[in-house]
Sequence to fold (313 residues):
Amino acid sequence: MTDDPIRPTTPAGPDGPHQRPAPGGPARAAAPGTGAPGSSAPGSSAATGPSVAAGSPPSGAAPERAPRPAADSAAPTQAIILAGGQGSRLRPYTDDRPKPMVEIPGTGTPIIGHQLNWLATEGVTDAVVSCGHLAEVLEDWLASADLPLRVTTVVENEPLGRGGGLKYAAASLPDPDRPWYATNGDIWTRFSLREMAGFHHERDAAATLALARPRIPWGAVETDEFGHVLDFIEAPPSPYLINAGVYVFSADFTTLLPDRGDHERTTFPRLARERRLAGYALPHGAYWRAIDTAKDLTEAAKELATGGPADKG
Fold:
């Protein structure tokens, strides 16, 4: 567990979250209102099926806490994990837990544990975890786990949409005037967030999306112009890049998010027209997988067994 003290309780306005320090665990902020719990991911493309880039999968080794970068560094030290998804396609694994609490076979660690370790290795010192479905299961694990960074939880008690949910979670970031990372809660990956942040900074972007090139889950057939079959290619890389569900956001991006609704239908298209939205292609050899189905868990376990995971976080 980090040795850093928990920040004092800081109440927001009457409609805002309230942080309550929890000894030995994360602080929690509860949203007003009633309704079915839910959270939202900043991008849905990453959770559409099995997707693997070249590289070895990470394992669950916990890193030492990284020091906070200098004030003029382009690399963020705060992040949001959107962890409220129901994970209906992962049943029965998600019958009693939210999707980020599903364990990667062979690691003994849930998805969110791998994510927090990775973020800490990349210099993140504070994370906000947005909970929804079976939030208490995730909160209990965070309260008892030996975490490598400070964690605050927020619960979205009424659906706000993907953009609204992201904006609500961002209100609990410790440094609102600094850039931040965000990741979907079902992504298992390793690549340099610092390099992605540098890419974002160099382009003066309001938002930068990580882009993955997944493998097509079917065998491909190569033909010539006359229709002769030339070759069979098993699970080739897709010719298209997809949203990998990992982001760098500038400090002012929060004000561009809707209070309710989908930022991918409003904020992102507007930023793209203004050339303020950047796309960072994951480097060759980087490992990336969206854990969306039981098959993804099976494939992740195979990659873990054959690839010799070199977890850097």
Summary: Confidence is low (pLDDT under 50) at residues 1-26, 28-54, 59-72, 308-313. Residues 80 and 234 are 36 Å apart (CA to CA). The helical segments are 111-121, 135-144, 161-170, 193-202, 253-256, 267-273, 294-307.
